[in-house]
């Protein structure tokens, strides 16, 4: 019959499963036995257990200071990668969406169509331009080299600059790191040979990279190869962006942003184009409302704070960027020879004038009788110490856009003793 055979088969399977279960239970420690073996509470515990506990304790202690004695950037993951575009954009879009907002951007392959990208090997440069044997240098681009460099479409608009474009050639042997530093100009980096990793930090974090404790203003005192988190604990607060820049790429780095470059092994060759952006004008009522936020930017620890002014400058840019008018560029498809470069000026002595156009000679409120533009030493030379100290004191009293636009420019790259001397200088400013 079918049913008796079926039940006999089921009983046989059950017996086999019960037997296997019993054997496994006898040979496998229970959960409580495993726990006893892993965590020993007796006096004669095996030595291996204590070693494991010590190792875990060290790891936990290290987690309290992530990035200590490690390269800058090890303290946390990047906030995000720099925005990447696989195509070039118009100068109107570049200015409106990136430059006016201080928003870094990477143009992948943006320089691969340049003649320089294919021609500039060591033999070619030596034959045509007599390139120096020094393998690590930064020099102004040779006039003859400019025929091999195509002005990127995003820069073909004279309305974008308050002064001429400047170009430099950088060469190196690779496996180097720069210091964490700022530049007062906008920068477009074209990598022609080699590759590099770039970390970018907003000026809002200037006090977290200890801008005021630097021997030279604009260069962070932090050792970027082995950050001492005990000495510089606020580095833990620093958020940063990261960009992997390959051969043929173009990277836009906003002015005043902290930047760190790490080059890959091998020959390096870059062309860097820099310019000064025109400041955005806003209405007086908008400026007054903004100033309350600027007063607390960066939480300064001293009366005169370079880090505070850098942070305030960036907050200013972010707050007024929406008021920046869209450019109307007349010249776009133009060769480099039609653009103005500093070394093409016939008389350099006559070129050392204001950074702004005639209608923008004074970026301060010229209706204010105490305006630095009315102060005699500033009329002669805005870099002299009397003028800079006057501007510093003026900016403590007045809500003036010139303070966030000019002070970082005036103070950048000052040595620490020079900055301290400014603070002790006899002042002509009367509150």
Helix and strand arrangement:
Blueprint: H1 2-27, H2 31-38, H3 47-63, E1 80-81, E2 83-85, H4 91-99, E3 105-107, H5 115-119, H6 122-129, E4 137-140, E5 166-174, E6 186-193, E7 196-201, E8 241-245, E9 250-253, E10 258-263, E11 265-275, H7 284-295, H8 306-320, H9 376-380, H10 385-397, H11 401-411, H12 416-424
Parallel strand pairs: 1-8, 2-3
Antiparallel strand pairs: 3-9, 4-5, 5-11, 6-9, 6-11, 7-8, 7-10
Helix pairs in contact: 7-8, 8-11, 10-11
Q: Tell me roughly what share of residues is in helical segments.
A: 25-40%
The CA-CA distance between the termini, in Å, is 114 Å
Q: Supply Rg.
A: 31 Å
Order of helices and strands: HHHEEHEHHEEEEEEEEHHHHHH
- What is the mean predicted local confidence, pLDDT? 79
Total beta strands: 11
- Low-pLDDT residue intervals, each spanning 5 or more residues: 1-59, 344-359
- Figure out the total of helices: 12
Largest pleated sheet: 7 strands, mixed
Quaternary state of this entry equals single chain
User: Per the principal axes of the C-alpha atoms, what is the gross shape?
Assistant: globular
* Strand adjacency order, main sheet: 2-3-9-6-11-5-4
Estimated share of beta-strand residues:
5-15%
Structural class: alpha+beta
